[in-house]
Amino acid sequence: MDELIRVENELNQAISAGDLLQASRLLDELNPREVTEVIERSPRAKAAVTYRLLSKSRALEVFEMLDPAVQGDLVHALRDDEVTGLFSELDPDDRAQLVDELPASVAQRLMLGLSAKDRAITTAILGYRSGSVGRRMSPEYVHAHPWYTAARTLDDVRAKAADAETIYTIPVTNDVKRLVGIVSLREVLASDPDATIGELMSEPEYALATDSAEEAARTCADHEYLALPIVDSETRLLGILTVDDAHQILRDAEAEDVARAGGSEPLRRPYLSTSIFSIARSRVVWLLVLAVSALLTVQVLEIFEATLEQKVVLALFIPLLTGTGGNTGSQAATTITRALAVGDVRTSDVWLVLLREVRVGTMLGLLLGSLGFVLAALVYDVPTGAVIGLTLLCVCAMAATVGGAMPLLAKTIHVDPAVFSTPFITTFCDATGLLIYFTIAKAILQI
Which terms are listed as keywords in the entry (predicted)? Predict the structure, then answer.
C-alpha cells in the first residue's frame, strides 16, 4: 500500500509537470488493479490523461475494471474510434451498465457502432428494468442438452470458452431452451466420456429475469453458486449471473444502505472523483427532511414550556433521554434491516419481531432505568430519580419497537428499508420520548 501511495504521488507530480514519459514509466510499475485505483481516485481531466498513457492491451483490461460512472467520464474524454473499440470489447452486461451512465445521444452512437449480433444482445439486456437481475445477467454462456455426452460437452466448452462469461457451471436445456438441469465442469471432466449429461445433471435453482438483482445475488452468494441461471416466465434460459457479479451487486446494495442509514443518498462513483456539488446534493435533501421533522421536537418542548419553568432540572436530562431513545431505535432498525437483507426475517414475521423488540427494549430500559434512578436520586431527589428511571424504561421499549417495525413497514410498501434511516427514526424517537418524559414528570412531580 505504501508503495502504491508513493507511485501515485509521483505520478500526479509527473502529470502536473507535463512529464508524460516519466508518468508512463511509473504506470508500468503498477498492475491493472492498482492502475484502476489510481484512475478512480483522480479528477476527471487527470484520469483521462492517465488512461491515455496505458498501452492498448492494458487499457482494455483497466477499462473493464473501472466503475461504470468513471467509464462514462472517460468516454467523454476519448476519441470516437477509441471509445467504439472499447465499447465493443465489453461484455454485454457491462455495456448495459455503461449505457446507463451516458447521455442518450452518446449511447445511441455507441450502440450503432456495434455489430448486429452484439447490438441485439445488448438491447435485450437494456429491455429489463433497472434493478432487475435481467439487467445484470450475462447472455454469453456455455450450455448443454441432456442427450449430449460428456465428451461432446467438453468439445463445446473448448470451442466457446473464449467468449463465455464462465465455463465452470453449465446449464442444461431441452430442445426449446427450457432449463431442465445444471452440471458442473468438474463433474463432466470426472465422468466417463460416453456418459450423458442427463445422467450427470442435478435439479437447477434459478431466478427470473424480472426478479430483484439483489435477491438473485443473495441466492447466488448464500448457496455459493459459481453461476445462477436466469430464465423467463416459461423457464427458458436467458443468461447467467456469475458469482463475481453477484458479490458486486451485494457490495453496491450495502453501500446504498449504509449511505441512507446515515441520512444521505449513495454516491454513484468513487468519492475522490465525485464533484463537490454532487456530494452536497446527495446530502442536502435528507438534511432538509430531517430539519423539518426535527420541528416536532421543538413543538413538544414548546407545549411543556411551563413544566420546565417549574422544574428546571428536568431540562438537564433531555439530551440523555433523547440520545438513549434515538440510539435504541437505531440499533433495532439496523438489526432488522440486516435480517431482512439476508432473509432471516420476512414481513410476515412482523408480530414476532415486535414482540421480541418490546422484550429487548424493556430489558434494556430496566437496566438503564435502574442506573438512572440511582444516580438521579443521589444527586437530586427520589421523585426526580423515579421520573428518569421510568422514562428510560418506557423510552427504550418504545424506541426498540418503533425501530424494529419501521424496516418491516418499508418492505411491506415496497420501499427500501434503509430509506427509514437512522436519523429519521432518531428524530421520531426524540419527539415521542419527550412526550413520555414530560407526561411522567407531570404525574409524579404534580406540576
Answer: CBS domain, Cell membrane, Magnesium, Membrane, Metal-binding, Transmembrane, Transmembrane helix, Transport
